[in-house]
Amino acid sequence: MILTAAASLSCSLKYDDEVSTDSIIPELEIQDVDYKKYENSKLKVQIKAEKLERYKSDGAAFASRASFYTWDEEMVLKTEGSCSLLGMNDQTEIYTLFDDIFINNIDQKFKIRASSLKWNGKKETLVAAKDDTVYIERDDIQISGTGFSASGVDRSFTFDSNVDGLILTGEDNLSNQADGEQEEKTSE
């Protein structure tokens, strides 16, 4: 009885089958990376990272302790940011950011802080995990919430729930409010 149970639980290994390690072992690993992408002889994207790993199987790459920058057609800095880990797939145009994320969209005067975000370059959408808190700051807004999503096409963003913060209306904005507080303190 014990022999029958042991025989039925045993497995057979196929030693002649090759195991692909393309998806688990990096094809390329570089330290202290300064990657620059040009379009029409103009700098479009720059990524600086402590380490970059590229995988052969799906073209994915991962950059640790990454800083990134994008420029517009006139070579004006458009976006800058950083994160602990940046996952990139140029084939799918999916970019995933993890831990200590900071994005400064200079063009739209918009700053984002989060713990995980996913950018879809084809759809121009930025989303966070449903329960992750995202912090947004602009001249007139300082808010945080969960269920964050944003569209680069129509320049809008939404939170599904748990929104908290400050929104100023009219001519007041956070920059003016901060200046006013400074003036009050110096006039005393």
Main attributes of the structure:
mainly beta, globular, twelve-stranded antiparallel beta sheet, 188 residues
Percentage beta strand: over 45%
Please count the helical segments.
2
Shape: globular
Q: What is the overall pLDDT average?
A: 82
N to C succession of SSEs? HEEEEEEEEEEEEH
Q: Return the structural class.
A: mainly beta
Largest sheet: 12 strands, antiparallel
In total, the number of strands is: 12
Helix content range: 10-25%
Radius of gyration: 23 Å
Poorly predicted ranges? 1-15, 179-188
Give the terminus-to-terminus CA distance. 93 Å
Explain this structure.
12% of the residues lie in helices and 53% in strands. The chain has helices spanning 2-9, 174-187; strands spanning 28-39, 42-54, 60-71, 77-89, 94-105, 110-120, 125-127, 134-138, 141-146, 149-151, 156-158, 161-167. Strands 1, 2, 3, 4, 5, 6, 7, 8, 9, 10, 11 and 12 form a 12-stranded antiparallel sheet that branches. The longest helix has 14 residues, at 174-187. Mean pLDDT is 82; it is low at 1-15 and 179-188.
What is the secondary structure topology, with strand pairs?
Blueprint: H1 2-9, E1 28-39, E2 42-54, E3 60-71, E4 77-89, E5 94-105, E6 110-120, E7 125-127, E8 134-138, E9 141-146, E10 149-151, E11 156-158, E12 161-167, H2 174-187
Antiparallel strand pairs: 1-2, 2-3, 3-4, 4-5, 5-6, 6-7, 6-8, 7-10, 8-9, 9-12, 10-11
Summarize the structure.
The chain has 188 residues and is mainly β. Helices cover 12% and strands 53% of the residues.
